Amino acid sequence: MGLLDSFEKGLERAVNGAFAKTFRSGIQPVEIAAALRREADTNAAVVSRDRIITPSDYVVRLSTDDDERMRSLGRALHDELFALLTQHARTQGYAFASPLTISIEADERVATGTVRVSSSSVEGRVAWQGVIEVDGRQHPLKGARTVIGRGSDAGITIADAGSSRRHAEILWDGERGMLRDLGSTNGTKVDGQKVREIALTPDTTFTIGRTELVFRVVPVSSKETNR
To answer: Can the keyword Lyase be found in this entry's annotation (predicted)?
Structure first.
């Protein structure tokens, strides 16, 4: 079953139930979903070998009549469109440059039965941020050096009795990461082996005490848009 088939099934109760009379003519929800997917595919940008960024802000423009019909669905339509585009991005290996937003607007210049979708441009908006992930929470690397340890003065504090107060540090120059042990009592491990200093590649897992930490590089937005 394709994504659009899943989308249609997800809205089946709404479309064939209380809202059935709404869709006797004009645009259909599945057509909006298809237009959003095309917009994401058309504007996806390859920024590195393993990173494909797609726009995160979408505006759906409909005729006044179609907009009124769609609004009768309330929040259900927006939630389904959001879920569909999120799943499509995941399937295609896309990352959004910032949190996904979808808005639907009436536009008197759009004919009934027609949908127009615009999105913010990816170009010039994407930057990269090094983060350390601990128990699912991401801690951005701020500045060139970030100390990790049990002490309250550490940049990233971990509650692990096996860690030293200033256990290790991450060096980050905006593009590359380096892990350096700071003479800790129990050492810092990568793949089960103690290391003093090692270059970090994205998604490298290292261990301090019994805590696993992951170095990741994630896209961030400069907040600039170009519609």
So the answer is: yes
